[in-house]
Amino acid sequence: MVAQSDFIIVGGGDIIEGQRPLLIIGLLSMLAGTPIIYIGVGVLLPHNTLKKVILGWVMRNGQLIATRDAVSSSLLNSIKVQNIIIPDLASALEVLENPTTAQLLAHDRIKLSKPYIIINLRRPDTNQYAASWDEVEYEAIAEVCRTLIDIDNFLIICVPMITEIAQPPENEPSDELLLVEFASRVGRPGQIYVLAQDLRPAELATIMAGARLACGMRLHFLVLSAIGGVPLVALSYAKKVSEFMRSTGQTEFCLDIENLQTQTLLHLIYQSLAQSMQINKKLLKWRQDSQMQLNNLSSVFTSINPKQSKIRFIRQVIAPLLVQFGYKVGSVFRLL
Predict the structure, then answer these.
(1) Region for residue 13 given its phi and psi (left: phi exceeds 0; alpha: psi -120 to 50; beta: otherwise)
(2) How far apart are the C-alpha atoms of 72 and 78, rounded to whole Å?
(3) Model confidence over 237-282: pLDDT tens digits?
(4) What is the model's pTM?
(5) Is the dihedral angle over the CA atoms 85, 87, 92, 93 positive or is it negative?
């Protein structure tokens, strides 16, 4: 398929450490001579020197590399790969008018009787990220939720970004399983819910837009919340999270997940709620600027030179061989 394509677009994902298949696609495109562009990617440089060399070799074949944050851009610059920085692709999504937030939540039997705060958590992944957290941090967040429910009269809606449908049980546990356990830990039935339906990104953004505040970990949970102008409190486990919060002008509401303290998190949540109007204006400007930058990328696609048709037959013939070679290289790469 790679060899038969006119050009390839890779959108999103972390190169190498996050999603090795993206590296294999890049390698295959280079072998096949198929133009490739990377749009909105994050970069996690490997510690292994040979992996770094292979990454630079493959990425330099891209006709355009547009990273989603300054940290990724700097890492690519360090291995002499030219790139530009663009906003996360998800910032182009629109909040839906139909179905409404109430209609979407009704599918999970959640009735909106009072304001709600949305929460997202994930488990540690020390293969990709240095940060680590455990039951201490989960309990601190649970205590914050109890306070928001008992004292401040909020509903808590937990939003999984990776569900059982998207993530096989034998792999890393999904957000959904973790959040079900977390809701049980909070211990307030009827006051804390976990979204169980598999929703489209625009539907998630619509639910998030109705919240008073979003507190969570995953990057795209924060991006989709920001689309709706919702005040954010980020629990950062990676530079991509803190970099996103910087881009939205909410650095002061970004908290390191490691050694999290209940009172510190609660203070940030109250502070963010108190500044909701100012934050909404900041996020509106962030969204307008992001959409303008993404619109300007349209000219890039017209400048790509697809493979000449005269060698299409040759590429179709060698495609099976390239695929086998690419997977062998990928298998070796995993062992490095």
Answers:
(1) left
(2) 10
(3) 998 999 999 999 999 999 999 979 999 999 999 999 999 999 999 9
(4) 0.84
(5) positive
